[in-house]
Predict the structure.
Amino acid sequence: MVQKSTSTAGLRGQVAGETALCTVGVSGSGLTYCGYDVADLAANATFEEVAFLLQHGELPSQSELDTFKQNLKQQRELPVALREILERIPKTAHPMDVMRTGCSALGVLQPEQSFAEQDEHIVNMLAKFPGIMNYWYHFHFSNKKIDTDSNADSIAEHFLTLLSQTKPSELHINAMQVSLILYAEHEFNASTFASRVAASTLTDIYSAVTGAIGTLRGPLHGGANEAAMALISSFTDPDDAEKGLMAMLAAKDKIMGFGHAVYRTSDPRSVVIQEWAKKISEEVGDTRLYDISERCEKVMWREKELFPNADFYHASAYHHMGIPTDLFTPIFVMSRVAGWTAHIKEQRANNRIIRPNADYIGEEPRKYQPISER
Ligand SMILES: CC(=O)SCCNC(=O)CCNC(=O)[C@H](O)C(C)(C)COP(=O)(O)OP(=O)(O)OC[C@H]1O[C@@H](n2cnc3c(N)ncnc32)[C@H](O)[C@@H]1OP(=O)(O)O
Ligand SMILES: O=C([O-])CC(=O)C(=O)O
């Protein structure tokens, strides 16, 4: 069994600030957004309701939700200069680099001039991120300059419509709603903390979100959903997965999509997305990757007491929704921007620059030596 670290390396277990947005693992495994259980939200809410909740601390009334959705719809079209920038980013770029550059470019073209404008810029990012990803993707991979202004009712439907260039099925729209809700917020995870550190310098909102996107990109964080896809698709069937995993564990490899810095026994998001992964696999009539995933879960618990995190079952779910693997982590961005920006607002509302100390472990004080004497 893996010994879960009790050291404070990586600031593990340290309190680094206050938030009213989210609790993670308080009862060992739970997750709440502004007091609501994430499983309750995933079963009943839309992503827009959850984004509003994170931004305003309360669920919207019908008229508040209608106005919020209307504002989001009105901001979907990308400025010409941004489309030109996206066209110049090479086909070989990683889509997360496209998202990072797209967000940064938005901050150049439509800068946040004062914090009083922050809500407008949050709507701007929520509305435009699906278009940024899909405009670049279609320009390079289907030789099309797509219209990013769809009539879709939700961000979930809008993203899937732009990607497939057809009307997505209700099953896929509902699965994407759930996925966006599960990914929306997670307390002081690495990318959110990065956004709060940036915000604490009183920088603009696009700079703080650009830093967060770069932080989410890594395989130990959001990039794990893509790495989990690479893992499960490297196995031919569940028995092959068991054999392969045992070899990887013997070689002390990290198994992507397993383990967590805070949860100790389970990630409450995993069981929710697992159900959707099963439904979607059965709908396409191909449960091979899902069956492989289930076996991985069994082996990892038996061998290491490690459990699937939010990313693991997203891999087979997204794959069978026809989403290219490289776009998995950018979808995480389209959702987590709701959480990042809620934290940026919270940091700004009660700010002190985040500037911890370090324990010095270097050389004792010494005199400069001229280069001729070294
Ligand atoms: C949405 C998200 O960002 S969820 C996280 C996504 N990331 C991944 O799935 C990547 C794989 N997982 C990991 O690398 C880790 O579990 C992390 C980064 C998520 C958490 O890291 P930590 O807080 O350091 O984990 P923890 O303290 O529980 O780890 C203790 C031991 O378990 C091992 N361990 C943890 N996760 C794994 C894993 N997935 N595979 C193999 N061993 C693991 C660690 O290597 C460590 O062993 P060591 O002390 O010999 O180095
Ligand atoms: O909280 C973390 O460390 C990582 C995580 O699960 C998330 O950001 O969703």
